Amino acid sequence: MSVRVGVVTFPGSLDDRDAARAVRIAGGQAVALWHGDDDLRNVDAVILPGGFSYGDYLRCGAIARFAPVMRSIIERASAGMPLLGICNGFQILCESQLLPGALTRNDSLHFICRDQRLRVENTSSAWTSGFMSGQEIVIPLKNGEGGYVADERTLDALEAEGRVVARYLEVNPNGSRRDIAGITNERGNVVGLMPHPEHAVEPLTGPTTDGTPFFTSVLKSLVSA
Amino acid sequence: MSIDTVAAAEVSPEQSQPFAELGLKPDEYQQIRDILHRRPTSSELAMYSVMWSEHCSYKSSKVHLRQFGEKAPKTDALLVGIGENAGVVDIGAGWAVTFKVESHNHPSYVEPYQGAATGIGGIVRDIMSMGARPLAVMDPLRFGPADAPDTARVLPGVVAGIGGYGNCLGLPNIGGEIVFDSAYLGNPLVNALCVGAMKHEDIHLASAKGVGNLVVLYGARTGGDGIGGVSVLASETFADGGPTKRPSVQVGDPFMEKLLIEATLEVLQAGLVEGIQDLGGAGISCATSELASNGEGGMHVWLDRVLLRDATLSPEEILMSESQERMCAIVCPDRLPEFMERCAKWEVEAVVIGEVNATGRLTVDWHGERIVDVPPRTVAHEGPVYERPFHRPAWLDALQADTPDHLERPVTGPELRQTLLAMVAAPNLASKSWVTSQYDRYVQGNTVLAQPEDAGMIRIDEATGLGVAIATDCNGRFAKLDPYAGAQLALAEAYRNVAASGATPLAVTNCLNFGSPEDPEVMWQFAEATRGLADGCLQLGTPVTGGNVSFYNQTGDTAILPTPVVGVLGVIADVAMRTSMAWHDEGDHIYLLGDTSAEFGGSEWANHVHGHLGGLPPRVDLDRERALAKVLVTGSTSGLLVAAHDVSDGGVAQVLVEMALRAGTGATVNVPAALEPFVFMFAESAGRAVVVVRPTEAGQLGALCERAGVPLTEIGVVTAGAELTFADLFTVPLGDLKREHERTLPELFG
């Protein structure tokens, strides 16, 4: 039986179809989850996709964090369920305090869409185990508020514990502290990522297929678990 | 407050009304009185004034636009033609595509961010109202000189508005144009194109069918934004203590639009809707009168049921409000509960405001009092039509006689090298990535080609790879030198761009941006451009499916360059066979298809290097364009072409630079013996493309071109090096070209 990966649709989610497609391409079964429904439909993992949930009103991710579905997700993630937040999903994870820090307005003050080079630095998380340590990849980045910030102590802790999942190379596109593109929690099951691996799973539509291992990693870890 | 009712109007024929302030001419006002056999109520006057405006009624352009129908080529591809919200084209396998381009020029000048943002919002709702899921947007833009202070005010706001709205809707922005010219200073052009797709059975039309069916208004609440001239009426109604004059530029809420898209697609797919119309210009007036006019002919509206953001709005203001993110649906009473449920799911407010009837009248009540009672066709479709006088401008002969032949040309290798570096940095030829990197091109995961490629291409059907490509083009300088040829050159370029991507051109949309129709010389430009475009579409076999006219783009007596922006849509059976502009492998052969001659009238070289505009534009040969497109499409879909790029602004030199920079690897180029190097590099002759093939397949390309009757010249070979070499003339490192090409916009706009 194939692994069931839930993809949540909030009002204003945009990359939910793309995330579902990436799950299918990786060999999993994508399951649509609705923000207003706390039933996780027996999924084995969850993706919070990119977009502008609630129009980014108030603060990115601040309203989505209170959606009924998030109660169940936070509960399951605390018990170890793999959970990936991409872009707006990363912002929701920070607002939910599943991950430390916050995402702030890009230092350029412009929305930026570019093919971004990254180095994968943590290959033990549920979503990155399929990469080689130090592997360089290129996947799309597109955000207006992607600057990762946290206090120095938190940043030092993330570094010391190897919880920086990926770092920007060549260009720091949004002013993120220490070039951080993604982080994970202590347990390694929750990952927040500002760039979009779901847009790099097909040679036809992405700059590369470097995004695929994020999705195959979680399927593999769940099958072997 | 006092409400002007039909009953009051009947007994007060002498009451003076502010028709002139609302933009109506005395004879138009009299025409309304003749239709109604009484004076209009203030609400009726408001409706007529806005529906009979140039923007809504096409009263100056109608007599010319008829040619698009009369000269339409025979085709089975057109499922819905001109006159609906957007044309619909059959692309096979049960799929239909709808696309349209519209202007939002004046609002974008007044308030760049919101003007551009709501331009996207409006065109997206047009596409939705055909029953289609919106799939992508593009923006053809024109600004004043790149270094003008006002451009620094307008451009960043326009770009941020397009990005801010489009990115939040989840629609990839896949192309468009950015052109700078002093003629657009004070009159920037912000056009917006949207493309959507649906299955044939999901096509919907804006008609109120079925007596007893309900008129549902849903989406954002109605506010006082975008009321414009109607505030004249409002201030009459509210002598004191009423609302102050509102800004006439609408304010957009892309989050609401995103919810509106999802809710609309759900109700359409569930079969809950009999007819549908978006609310854009002229708001509820337009939606109700058009729906009624296209349907059973009668409708009653309870205007006080409209959900308001501002409870102090007068009925006239509610009728005219251009508040964004609203739609109007015709729903069977027994499907209403489900309709309301689906809207509630997406947190979209909906309310029944009226009912379809067979009275032949559009009646509107306000708290029990009749304030509108009109035949809807007279509002929506039977407005005034003008045969504006036009004549060939007196200055045109002198302009055409001032050819670029006397301009000093570069001759030596160093001179040509210097000219090339200057040209690739010219604002019109420089990299536009400062702009396009502010747009999301990836969302939805179906973008196959996007800027800076010749055309934007999206996959429609994931199972089969069926997709469409779209390009928009127009060189306003060409159109100024000869509007007939200029419109055809715009058509030819967009057609060629689509073919270069590998898609077969199928249909045309347009956005005709001109100065004042009351100026006979501008009107002549318009008449010539529409005639040229209609003739061209007939010759190429690509029907016009719809479009938009924007007049009055002028300051004082100075009109913009005539700018008939043409959008061409093409279809490709499998997007995997598309061709990009990037070449790949060392040793691959580079060919120029088509003929080059010393055509510099209106060229970017004359414009950028000499500030010169004069002479004649390049010669148009649409039969040649058709043959070239055949080579490009066949070559692409058979896998023969490694890369292809249309030749237009900046000539072959610009094309080679763009292909090399896209690939990150250089080439050695040989100037054909018959051509002066300068002419080879910078002439802008039409009907040309640069293609790249593997050396083993050169013979196949030769045979294909011979069959099609397209001249073919080998001009070089791809190298592994990081420089572009023009043999016996000069070599330039790609790094230098890249630096020059990419620095212009960031330096100007930060």
Structure description:
The complex is a heterodimer of chains A (225) and B (750). Chain A has 225 residues and is an alpha/beta fold. Chain A has one domain (4-224): Class I glutamine amidotransferase (GATase) domain (Rossmann fold, 3-Layer(aba) Sandwich), CATH 3.40.50.880. The model of chain A has no long low-confidence stretch (mean pLDDT 96). The longest helix of chain A has 13 residues, at 212-224. In chain A, helix 1 links the parallel strand 1 and strand 2. Chain A has a nine-stranded mixed β-sheet with strand order 2-1-3-4-11-10-9-6-7, sandwiched between helices. A two-stranded antiparallel ribbon of chain A has the order 5-8. Chain A has five helices and eleven strands, in the order βαββαβαββββαβββα. Chain B has 750 residues and is an alpha+beta fold. Chain B has a domain at 6-61 and 206-380: PurM-like C-terminal domain (Phosphoribosyl-aminoimidazole Synthetase, Chain A, domain 2, Alpha-Beta Complex). In chain B, the strands form five sheets. A seven-stranded mixed β-sheet of chain B has the order 8-10-7-11-9-12-13. Chain B is globular and about 90 Å long. The two termini of chain B are 52 Å apart. At the A-B interface, helix 1 and strand 6 of A face helix 8 and helix 10 of B.
